[in-house]
Design brief:
Elements (H helix, E strand, L loop, with lengths): L2 H15 L8 E4 H18 L3 E5 L4 E4 L1 H18 L4 E9 L2 E7 L30 H12 L3 E5 L5 E8 L8 E4 L3 H12 L5 E4 L14 E5 L1 E2 L2 E2 H12 L4 E5 L12 E3 L4 H13 L1
Parallel strand pairs: 2-4, 8-9, 8-10, 10-13, 13-14
Antiparallel strand pairs: 1-3, 4-5, 5-7, 6-7, 11-12
Helix pairs in contact: 1-4, 2-3, 3-4
């Protein structure tokens, strides 16, 4: 296991043991969040000749994204460390009012009598195991802090599937769709709006809301979104919803003259951003 993962694990365990971890929950889209997490762990999998795949991730959930990320990262790293062939799959499925995230590995499996013990501190089932034996202990402790049930299905010789269930969210009328492929900018803008009570679904690229969702009250999008532009994305959404207020944001001042949509420059001024959003929704 890479040294920085081991150091992160020790630091995480210390904070959990000290009772210093407090969740800060809000609604967020799994899509950009999981995409980034998969890309973080992929080099580790490829170094071992393993594939790492993600299946289904368009849901919106209510949790602490930073703590949940650490939990899922530990499950992915654990799966990579114990898989000897094939690959690892992270699957996302809706289950009523919850979303189940499951990590399947192709490892040796865990005997039934060991499946509770594996979540203890400094536990490794074989001398050949990698790491400090803290990863799954941290998973359980983070799950308890978040109030998210953790599950395990495993058969010796058939691999294991670790899962966590997270509350699912369907946006209420008045929600805002925020589209920005810059992770830091997207989360900062979303936090500005959440602090004044807006429900925000923040995604990294073109996003088609599920059919049962109400129309967004506003679309906030960066001008440059990889292969598409923000105005083109707004046009696609308006073809579905009809009238739909929109605000384009960009660090490229030249784009202000390339769209008829309302425009704000980056970096965003929080007060001006909030005021412009409120004005557009009120129109």
């Amino acid at each position: 296991m890479e040294l920085h993962y081991m150091l992160d694990t020790l630091s995480e365990q210390t904070r959990l043991d000290g009772g210093k971890v407090r969740p800060v929950r809000h609604d967020f889209s799994l899509e950009p969040w999981l995409d980034a997490l998969i890309e973080e762990v992929r080099p580790m999998a490829e170094d071992r000749g393993l594939t790492l795949r993600l299946h289904g991730c368009t849901e919106v959930v209510h949790s602490d994204p930073h703590l949940l990320r650490r939990l899922i990262r530990n499950l992915l790293v654990n799966a990579v460390c114990h898989s000897r062939r094939g690959g690892v799959l992270l699957g996302v499925r809706r289950r009523g009012d919850r979303v189940r995230l499951t990590v399947w590995d192709s490892g040796p499996g865990i005997p039934p009598e060991q499946q509770e013990r594996i979540f203890g501190e400094f536990v490794r089932l074989s001398e050949e195991g990698e790491g400090l034996g803290l990863g799954l202990s941290i998973v359980r402790q983070l799950a308890e802090v978040l109030g998210h049930p953790v599950g395990l299905r495993s058969r010796p010789g058939r691999g294991s599937a670790f899962s966590v269930e997270v509350p699912r969210v369907d946006p209420a009328p008045g929600w805002i769709l925020l589209v920005d492929d810059d992770d830091g900018g997207r989360e900062a803008a979303a936090e500005v709006l959440r602090r004044v009570g807006f429900q925000v679904v923040a995604v990294a690229g073109p996003f088609e809301p599920p059919r049962h969702w109400p129309a967004p009250a506003l679309v906030v999008c960066d001008y440059h979104l990889g292969a598409v532009t923000g105005p083109a994305l707004v046009a696609d959404l308006r073809a579905r919803y009809g009238v739909l207020p929109a605000l384009v944001v960009s660090g490229d001042s030249a784009t202000a003259g390339q769209t008829v949509l309302p425009w704000l420059g980056k970096p965003l001024n929080p007060g001006l951003f909030r005021r412009r959003v409120s004005e557009l929704i009120a129109q």
